[in-house]
């Protein structure tokens, strides 16, 4: 099972590599970085909003504390020490709340500054990645185009390979048809096949066959004369020279058939 799983994973990985386009992968990675940057910016905005809300609360408590202080002064001026004490007690409670809010405000401000710095760094990285992405995409596109051109020139691309196979099949079929046509012509010339077009008759076919035999006999006589095995028969040589010419009109068809036999 472990081996089968490894084979399946390797096949799947190979299929994915074949389907993967680096340009699409780079665009997708850039899109994810933009989404992350957008989230960081929203985080900065949320922290800034919370900090501003705390500032407003602190300002409101400060105004209320000053009002309690004025109320305490007025109560003392009219001889109401109890009211002055109550006003000062409420102001003290507000000051405690303001101290807690100021601590929270300082924490939010520090977090805001940290997120702002991270957002700026991330923005710089995204910008650098975008530049590098476009450079890689342009380089990949140029390399892909060059590879296709080279494959087209060398004939190893899939499209050109199909064209080459088609041409090869056409040439093979053409050669086969030419060979078949030549064989049929030879069979018709030898009389093995009947020519139904009417362009040849049996008498002419017999004359052509006997003329070919006379050429062989003439060549044999010449070779014997060259080897000293005997003089070449003059009648055979003369008949061989006159055989390709048209026969005289006064000779009958019977004489035309017998003359080559007599030469043999």
Explain what the structure shows.
Belongs to the PspA/Vipp/IM30 family. InterPro entries: PspA_VIPP1. The chain has 264 residues and is mainly α. The chain folds into two domains: 139 residues, Helix Hairpins (Orthogonal Bundle); 67 residues, no CATH class. The protein is built from seven helices and no strands. It is rod-shaped. It starts with a helix and ends with a helix. The C terminus is likely disordered.
Structure keywords:
264 residues; mainly alpha; 7 helices; 0% strand; disordered C terminus; Phage shock protein A (PspA) family protein; PspA_VIPP1; coiled coil
Could you outline the blueprint of secondary structure elements for this entry?
Blueprint lengths: L1 H18 L2 H56 L3 H74 L3 H33 L11 H26 L6 H9 L10 H11 L1
Gross morphology is rod-shaped
Query: Which architecture of the largest domain would the CATH scheme give at its second level?
Result: Orthogonal Bundle
Q: In terms of structural class, how would the helical and strand content be classed?
A: mainly alpha
Low-pLDDT sequence parts: 243-264
Rounded to the nearest angstrom, the radius of gyration is 56 Å
**In whole angstroms, how far apart are the ends?**
88 Å
Task: Give me the strand/helix succession.
Answer: HHHHHHH
Text of the CATH class of the largest domain: Mainly Alpha
- The number of distinct structural domains comes to 2
Largest beta-sheet characterization = none
Percentage of helical residues? over 70%
Overall mean pLDDT: 76
Look up the CATH topology of the largest domain.
Answer: Helix Hairpins
Kindly state the number of beta strands. Answer: 0
How many H/I helical runs?
7
Percent in strands? under 5%
- Give the assembly state of these chains: single chain
Protein name: Phage shock protein A (PspA) family protein
Family: Belongs to the PspA/Vipp/IM30 family.
Keywords: Coiled coil
Pfam families: PspA_IM30
């Amino acid at each position: 099972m472990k081996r089968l799983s490894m084979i399946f994973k390797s096949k799947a990985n190979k299929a994915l590599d074949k389907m993967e386009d680096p340009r699409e992968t780079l665009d997708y990675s850039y899109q994810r970085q933009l989404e992350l940057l957008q989230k960081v910016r929203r985080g900065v905005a949320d922290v800034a909003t919370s900090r501003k809300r705390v500032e407003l609360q602190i300002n409101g408590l400060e105004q209320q504390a000053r009002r309690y202080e004025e109320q305490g002064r007025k109560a003392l001026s009219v001889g109401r020490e109890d009211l002055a004490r109550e006003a000062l007690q409420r102001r003290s409670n507000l000051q405690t709340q303001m101290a807690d809010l100021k601590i929270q405000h300082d924490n939010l401000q520090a977090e805001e500054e940290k997120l702002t710095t991270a957002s700026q760094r991330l923005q710089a990285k995204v910008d650098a990645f975008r530049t590098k992405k476009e450079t890689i995409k342009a380089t990949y596109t140029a390399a892909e185009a060059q590879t296709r051109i080279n494959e087209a020139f060398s004939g190893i691309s899939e499209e050109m390979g199909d064209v080459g196979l088609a041409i090869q099949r056409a040439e093979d079929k053409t050669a086969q048809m030419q060979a078949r046509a030549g064989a049929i012509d030879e069979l018709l010339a030898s009389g093995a096949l009947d020519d139904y077009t009417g362009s040849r008759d049996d008498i002419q076919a017999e004359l052509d066959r006997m003329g070919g035999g006379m050429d062989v006999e003439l060549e044999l006589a010449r070779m014997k004369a060259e080897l000293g095995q005997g003089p070449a028969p003059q009648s055979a040589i003369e008949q061989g020279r006159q055989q390709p010419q048209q026969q005289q009109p006064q000779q009958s068809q019977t004489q035309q058939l017998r003359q080559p036999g007599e030469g043999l």
